[in-house]
What does this fold into?
Amino acid sequence: MRWAALTRAARYYASGKVVHDLGESHFAMNGGLQELSGERSCVVSSSIVMIRGRHRNPSRGHVGLSKYRLFARDRHVCAYCGSHCNEADLTVEHIVPVSRGGRHEWTNVVTACRSCNTRKGSRLPEEANMPLLFVPYAVCRNEGFILSNRRILADQMAFLQVSLPRHSRWAQG
It folds into this structure.
């Protein structure tokens, strides 16, 4: 699964690689004029296109960790005090500090406000008497699409959300 430009989708339709299409949104792409008839060619593409080829499990794709994706995963909420903050007031907080062998990975980082991050310091949450309000988790590929903050149409969002694990903060329910 990946995002494809409309021109690539048109190539998939033209080469017969489209197996199935979904979605309520359709996009028309006009081509050149045919010499004999003078008609303009046109390809209409759905917003979700399934093509012939290898199928990969969307839950297995690696999603790179960035502070913007982390803040989006945690919905801009501090994992310690629960306050909703703007991006400028948030930090990436390592549950097990890097200085104590913690790794920079999805399951060891949460969003924290600056004051909570400073108060916790290089201690474990138990040592600082600061329990986590929610458990961090690694995001799947479809959630990565959502967190990348692209312009996602409503039907595309519904398609992505169906395959999200129940523990995802972006899953429907």
